[in-house]
Design brief:
Strand content of chain B: over 45%
Strand content of chain A: over 45%
Oligomer: heterodimer
Shape of chain B: globular
Radius of gyration of chain A: 14 Å
């Protein structure tokens, strides 16, 4: 059964720092991996989608990598800003379980001015 | 505007009183899904639908029903709600979950309290 883990659970950094969020998954048979942002009391917003055949995707200050063989993905945020404060979740679309999407528990990021 | 719309956004009900949470998307998406989010447990999938008239159980389907009679709508039905179904519910849709258009769009959430 696919399991997704995110470390750390919470992270606090000063403004301007570059940071890395980690996501690991147990079954490498995936269609894709997505990173989401969730603000308190709100729905999730998709940030980046990486297909299983891709190694990375970039959008602005965000870069996500995928290493399927080791079951890992990272989300790199450059020059962090207070507006980046939110919970970041990763999710994999499991190749062995049809249309199931399995989420990690998220990393709560706080960027201090 | 492309969006996923859930209603109601907030609901307080009592044990056993049937309720339906509606979900509608205007993007002609094939894939739709329901999740619940609970502190310490994260997001868990309840049911999903790959297309019209096709639905499948997620990880926590007990106590819930769904239907997909038309592409845009995917209602979540609680036939006899119980307090352990108190949660924040999200509906989401995607053009095609497994392809390049697999980006998932979420509704704003429905906070349900069962007394």
């Amino acid at each position: 059964k696919q399991e997704v883990t995110q470390i750390p659970a919470a992270l606090s950094v000063p403004e301007g720092e570059n940071l890395v969020l980690n996501c690991s998954f147990t079954d490498s048979a995936i269609y894709n991996l997505q990173w989401f942002r969730q603000d308190p009391g709100k729905g999730l917003t998709s940030l980046l989608l990486i297909q299983s055949s891709q190694r990375e995707q970039t959008s602005g200050r965000l870069n996500a990598s995928l290493d399927k063989s080791s079951g890992r993905s990272t989300l790199y945020i450059a020059a962090s800003q207070p507006g980046d404060s939110a919970t970041y979740l990763c999710a994999v679309t499991s190749g062995n379980q049809g249309g199931k999407l399995i989420f990690g528990q998220g990393t709560e990021l706080s960027v201090k001015p | 505007e492309a969006q996923v719309t859930q209603n109601p956004r907030y609901l307080i009900t009592v044990t056993g009183k049937k309720l339906t949470v509606t979900c509608s998307q205007n993007m002609n998406h094939e894939y739709m899904s329901w999740y619940r989010q609970d502190p310490g447990l994260g997001l868990r999938q309840i049911y999903y639908s790959m297309n019209v008239e096709v639905t499948d159980k997620g990880d926590v389907p007990e106590g819930y029903k769904v239907s997909r009679k038309e592409k845009r709508n995917f209602p979540l039905i609680l036939e006899s709600p119980s307090p352990n179904q108190t949660s924040l519910y999200f509906c989401a849709s995607s053009l095609s979950l497994t392809g390049e258009t697999g980006e998932l769009f979420f509704g704003e959430g429905s906070r349900l309290t069962v007394l």
